[in-house]
Design brief:
Elements lengths: L6 H8 L2 H77 L14
């Protein structure tokens, strides 16, 4: 039967550089693989998020362009309507007569 190890025996073994180096060498591939998989998952999530943001950006740019065109068209309509109102007001005043210094008749 092998001798029973106490927890302190394990701690003492970890204080030896050869044991630590051997553990590091044995665990490095597993730790590396775990880190790579985790990074790959996160990068995939970021790529999907970035793709969605790019699509939203294109959609918003298209919407802004459409709204700008609509705004320009509405500005032209308002300008045309203002001109028409001015023309109509001027036309309606053309027959008006302004009399100044008309003497009052006291009766």
């Amino acid at each position: 039967m092998p001798p029973k190890l106490k927890p302190t025996d394990f701690i003492d073994a970890l204080s030896e550089s050869g044991v630590v180096d051997a553990l590091a060498k044995a665990l490095t591939p597993f730790i590396t693989l775990s880190i790579e998989e985790s990074l790959k998952t996160k990068l995939n999530e970021f790529e999907l998020l970035l793709r969605d943001l790019k699509l939203d950006n294109v959609r918003l740019n298209n919407k802004c362009e459409s709204l700008n065109k609509e705004s320009e068209a509405l500005k032209k309509i308002v300008s045309d309507q203002n001109r028409r109102i001015d023309d109509l007001e001027a036309y309606s005043r053309c027959d008006n007569l302004i009399i100044r210094e008309y003497p009052r008749i006291h009766g």
